[in-house]
Amino acid sequence: MTSRIIGTGSYMPAQIVTNDDLAKIVDTSDEWIASRTGIRNRRVVREESTSFMAAEASRRALESAGVKPEELDLILVGTSSADHCFPSAACEVQGELGAVHAAAFDISAACSGFLFALNTLQAFIQAGMYKTGLVVGVDCLSKLVDWKDRSTCVLFGDGAGAAVIRAEDTGIRHTVMKSDGAKWKVLSCVSRTNGNFINGRQPKQGYLYMDGQEVFKFAVKKVPECICEVLNESGTDIGDIRYFILHQANYRIVESVAKRLKQPMDKFPMNMEHYGNTSAATVPVLLDELNRSGKLKQGDRIVLSGFGAGLTWGATLLEW
Ligand code: UT7
């Protein structure tokens, strides 16, 4: 028994922020951002909360799967920007959907959040504990970036993607998850629990910090490695993969991974041009776009791969 994705959904805020808009607030240009990253626009919330975006994406995923909220056994949300320290975004989504029979909790794995949540749900289903689950990748990094820091604020956007998973005989074939906590400092964000009043330090919330070049080097090495691992361990020929759906951080990272894997670029769909890096949401949003545009055919073999703060990274091989 394994699990299969039976429905997808996504939600992107309506407000579009272009590279030219950003050039009005920091010393940057459309030319720099587009040529270094492939990003031209990003969506930024006006009123929407993280759990609102997650619930909207989830509704669309449930609708596409033909599954009722009451059928869900487990809801996992991969996010680094939940609206509350507690409860989890997953519990807020559960309440919003009326998924009265589900257990719900968040997975904190930054940009790998959707992948780690998907693999966790798969493990529960494989163990026979649950039959039907919902996995969400959502982030609202516009609330965590320093809008005066041109090296990070131009990269990120807000959004949510979701998938409904059900126990079936075919679907997810193999999963790989990795972490390297020794490198946590290269991509981090201080939380409000840092400091306390007793020792005289005010609790504070910091901005996102990133050593871009370190993250870049890590991604172009580790992503191909874990993709090869998931393929080798499952005995799958790389030539049989229809799509590699990678975390959408930078088109140069995607191109480098394709080159290292010796695979053609048409197997690597991208959408960071429109949405920027939406952290945990990039993989499920791209998956939903491909699904809704009819590009995924039953039996297609697909590799999903995420990477981000932690450091965390991983890959999932599945049959559509
Ligand atoms: O989802 C989390 C995972 N995150 C990532 O995958 C990000 C990985 N890293 C990257 O994508 C790239 O490292 C960046 C896009 C973040 C940066 O690209 P880069 O080619 O590594 O640029 P850089 O940091 O080496 O900066 C080059 C120059 C610097 O100026 P000097 O020192 O050469 O004069 C920066 O100050 O570009 C400057 N710069 C900018 N200029 C205009 C940095 N940000 C900007 C900007 N506009 N927004």
Q: What is the overall number of helices?
A: 10
Task: Identify the strand order in the major beta sheet.
Answer: 1-7-6-4-5
Q: What global shape is seen? A: globular
Count of beta strands: 13
Q: Quaternary state, please?
A: single chain
Mean pLDDT: 96
Derived structural class = alpha/beta
Report the biggest beta sheet as strand number plus sense, adding barrel if it closes: 5 strands, mixed
In this entry the ligands are: oxa(dethia)-CoA
How helix-rich are the residues, as a percent range? 25-40%
Task: Flag low-confidence runs.
Answer: none
Run of helices and strands:
EEHHEHEHEHEHEEEEHEHHHEE
Strand content is: 25-35%
Cα distance, first to last residue?
15 Å
> What's the gyration radius in Å?
19 Å
3D architecture notes:
This protein has 320 residues and is of the alpha/beta class. The protein is 33% helix and 26% strand. The chain contains ten helices and 13 strands. The chain has helices spanning 19-23, 30-37, 50-65, 89-97, 113-126, 150-153, 212-234, 251-261, 272-275, 282-292; strands at 2-11, 16-18, 41-43, 74-78, 103-107, 132-140, 158-168, 172-179, 187-189, 208-210, 241-246, 301-308, 312-319. The chain has a five-stranded mixed beta sheet with strand order 1-7-6-4-5, with helices on both faces. α3 crosses α4 (89-97) and α7 (212-234) packs parallel to α8 (251-261). It is globular. The mean pLDDT is 96. Oxa(dethia)-CoA (UT7) binds next to α2, α6 and α7.
